[in-house]
Amino acid sequence: xxxxxxxxKTEKHNEHGTGNGLRFGVSSMQGWRIEMEDAHCAITxxxxxxxxxxxxxxxxxxxxxxxxxxxxxxxxxxIVATDEFQxxxxxxGIRSGFLNLDDRMRELPKLASGEDKSGSTAVCALIxxxxxxxxxxxxxxxxxxxxxxxxxxxxxxxPVLPAEKERIQQxxxxxxxxxxxxxxxxxRALGDYDYKNVKGLGxxxxxxxxxxxxxxxxxxxxxxxxxxxxxxxVWDVMSNEAVCDYIRSRLAVTDDLEAITNDVIDTCLYxxxxxxxxxxxxxxxxxxxxxxxxxQRENExxxxxxxxxxxxxxxxxxxxxxxxxxxxxxEDIPNLPPGGGLHAKRNLIQTLHKKMCPSKEDTVEPCVxxxxxxxxxxxxxxxxxxxxxxxxxxxxxxxxxxxxxEIDENATIPQD
Length: 416
Description:
One of its GO terms (cellular component) is cytosol. It is built from eleven helices and 14 strands. It is α+β, with helices and mostly antiparallel strands.
């Protein structure tokens, strides 16, 4: 089946932790892809004078997992070791760390020989007591939620963006079917050295650039809620607003961040994502907390779904899972999780279907066939709104840091 499996691998890798007033949860899943190429990093307390700093990152590999795995292990050390970072120019240090890592990796034996042709997008966050430094290279994305809304999102680096397309063409390439030379779907990445060999051009002028876009967000303790870092397997099927709405609704019923991240990627799978999926959720002190009222509403919703499934099966007898789902959509069930909808309750529906329709059980293992598009049952999610990317401005393709009343590109270590 080409690059896809016959059935998705839904087993998840989870992590969680606390430190520096932050809580985090991680979930990653291979899904429909024949290989797991994602990697991630989550550290609270960096040591060596940075005990009150934390680092989180997601790496989405392509053409193999070599580069993403190496970046997960070494990006932070490359950033911290730069002269700029040591001299308190944090944003500049992050940029140099990306470029230094990309230059160093080129010499690794498998990459140098061409045996390994992999590359990886990267999105990361360095969190200090006063600032959140966000860097993105490629189409993995960070979204920052404050006071109930996504107030900042990184810009996806795609070949069709005007400045990206101009660089690609000046390096002798072309953009066809929204890809570099009709092949690579991202315009910035680490690795991908086959696209970085144009003589006479610097590393940031090649077909694929390793240069990150760096932004600095001033922390607001009273209203900062959470930061989401995720690969495009999530953002392909859920908008910034949908992810934030869904996570907020889950935070109101549980403080288990691992469970929430699992719910997000399960929901994305059922919305039609066919990619690897990885997500890091970082909760700040002002994040929503479970409330008895929200928990009661959740219990009532699940009881309502069970009653409706019972009624449908009583009327129709044992039915296929897909038909049951379609009937539930026709029921227009109220109070479903915002941003997730009925997709967010798919695991519950499957459990009840197995219990009530045992003869149909094999038709739903481990989940609906990948050719069944759940988006057919509900309007597909809107694409990420441009006004929410690049700190409320149109998505930018330059590498300059964002700045506003809440974005400070000149923040330095001593200020923290």
